[in-house]
Amino acid sequence: MEDSIRSAIRLLDGAVRYDGDSVQVVRPTTLTSDAMDRLVEQAVFAESEADRDAARWLIWELAQETGCGPASIHDLYLARGRGDVDGFTVPAMNLRVLAYHSARAAFRAAIKRKAGAIIFEIARSEIAYTDQRPAEYTAVVLGAALREGFRSPVFLQGDHFQANAAKYKADPTKELDAIRQLIDEGLAAGFYNIDIDTSTLVDLSHPTLDEQQRENYLRAAELTAYVRNHEPDAVTVSVGGEIGEVGGKNSTVEELKAYMDGYHRSLKEMGKYVGLSKISVQTGTSHGGVVLADGSIAQVKLDLNALKELSEAARSGYGLAGAVQHGASTLPEDAFGNFPKYGACEIHLATGFQNIVFDHPKIPGKLRETVRDWVVKNCASERKASDSEQQFLYKSRKKAIGPFKRDMWHLPADVLAFISADLEARFGFLFDQLKIQGTAEAVRRYVKAPVMRHAAPRPVGAAAPDDAEAGE
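The structure corresponding to this sequence follows.
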């Protein structure tokens, strides 16, 4: 393992000094060169597990050294709940395909706008089909921050750490244990922002709102307590809850109150735990949008008044940052400016970035055809009888992201440059619409990101000290 660490350090062309225990940056400018590209690539694609883990460890330590380590947005969101900050909506971005290049583009757009309130996230469902476990996602995003010279705390988020309703019904303990294991994995990787989604357990057949939400708020409280019992001592993880499954019926203020009141009662019975910082709601969107037969996206009837009422109720009644909007990246261009106006504290964006890559005119035709053929062959069981060819391909092509991750990463340099430029333009447009310009100052004021050192990786079976030490 020692050889793997020194090999990883050599990729940085003398920019880092290593004493056998810790690293010190001696030439910061090298971190923003293509040397970082090589290190991140090793963190993702190294044939040897030792080489991969060494690269990931080195990226983590460099992020701690330079001030762009993982952090929780919890205190900024509580400040928003108090009314100390307002007027912007935080973009939470799921980077499924070309994650490193996409993150670099996002950081470039953020730096130009002095924006610090941005979140990089990945959902439970995405981890598998994109072939990105939390440790890899963290290395990719932190590597991108280092590469672009972003020197503010980085917010990494576990999105939709969701209970599968069918699996929960069959074996509740097993399904909740699977979420707990994912929380453990996320926390170890620096996911200090976690969205607990047990909204799939809401049962609208019950006569009262409390009964409808009970399984949701009970399990959310249990998982919150689990997060609190396992988060690092120096970190208060930002935990989000959800009252309505995305794509389902629109949420109401009454449902929010039923969930939050039940959640607080349940959490209090478990001990003195810090609760939620935000609440996700349903206002008319769906993940990926509704695809029409010709492959276009249907117009969405977004209930902005409901979003405003839910955000106000979350802030005034419970001190939360507000309501979170999911499934928004495929909305019309003129929709995004409404989210700050109507008080949304956070908005989740995913499919739109994926579409930029998949549909980019510079993607080589042969690769495009190969991906299409793979989807047709391997995702045939997902095709509904009513799906047109365009609908099926649009909905299923995301499953090709993991199998073709290496092919996309190694596209010709000029192709990657064109795609990256278009991604940066898209991030810039969204950041402007969401009014996050200048939020780096609010992050500096409210977010305290402790230095979290990790011990150097050791071979399996070797004795190791504590995984992390926290210090200011």
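Confidence is low (pLDDT under 50) at residues 464-472.
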